[in-house]
Each structure stands twice: as structure tokens, then as C-alpha cells.
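[step 3/7] fold_predict: job queued, chain A
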Amino acid sequence: MKKTIVFTLVLAFISSLGYAQDFGLQKGDVAVSGNFAFGADKVGDLKTDQFEFSPSLGLMISDHVALGAGFKVGNLKKEVADEADIKLNNFSAGVFGRYYFTPKKRFTLFVQGELDYVRKKEKQGGNEINAKGFATALSGGMTFWMSKNFALEASLGVLSFERSKPDYSGAPVTKKTEFGAGLQDVKVGLIYKFNKG
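[step 4/7] structure written:
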């Protein structure tokens, strides 16, 4: 009897994840989100710390598609024994489009494309290099609505391309393409949906 009650409760909970109609997003909804990523690594004498925060604002233009804008700030610090620390600060701002597969349900998967203006500053000792450029990325993720207005979000960067040029004379253009789905590419954040009306 006890097993039957537990099984029924678990089944009811799982069913509510897929069929709750009061959760999720629909056309006309506005949502603000904030994702963050951080990491620390030590290999031999090299210690690396990094952090990124990326708030955004999106509008559901249909029941499945959101368009929005946001920015990212991040920093990376590398420490090597007997050498000056390397510090890299990043800033980017841009637009995105996101497709939700089941937007009106409590749990949904999404894919997102984005295009950003990028500005970087790298310092080591007394040397400083500034660079500007653009980046584009394709990512996927999932959203879980904890209430009608708040959701947890996890996204995974899969494919990205960046083109930038340092600001000194004769500097070469830097092009970087990344493809991967490792834990270092995971971002976790929160979404707040504004009530309509």
C-alpha cells in the first residue's frame, strides 16, 4: 500500500511537469534573466579563475519564439609561478533569438542563436592590449518553472565564432571558432516573467 501511494505521488509529480498549463511562456510575455558561470582550475603551476554574468530581456513574439537583447561581463585571471599574472576582462552586448520546444509547460528545452559586439582588455605586468570585434554563438538549454513567475535555467554553449582586432598599429585579426559541450560551457541562471495586464 505504501509503495502504491509513493508511486502515485511520483507519477502525479512527473505528469505535472509536462502538463501544467499555468507555467511557462506564451506570446506577449516579457521575461528578464540572468545567467552566470564561474570556474577555477589548477594544472601544475598554472592557476586559472574565471567568472561571467549575462543579464538579458526577452519578448515572446509567438508562442515558441523569443527575441531579446542582453550583455555579458566576464573576467579571467591566470597565475603562473614567477611570472606576472594575466588578466582578461570581457564585455559584450547584443541580440538573441530563442526557440522553446514546449513553452507553455513547466519543463522545456530551447535552442538559441546570438550576435554580439565584443570588447576585450588583456593586462600582463605593465603591458595592456585592447581589442574589439563581434561574436556569434549557438547554444541549447532547458528551463524549469518553479512558480508562475520564476524559473531555473541551464544553458550549454555548443558552437561559437569570434572575430576581433587589437587596437595597435599592424595588429593581426584574431578569429576563434569553438565547438564543444563540456562542463566549462554550462551556465546556470534565473528567469523572472512579468505578469501581463
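[step 5/7] annotate
The CA atoms of residues 100 and 110 lie 4 Å apart.
The longest helix spans residues 2-19.
exit 0
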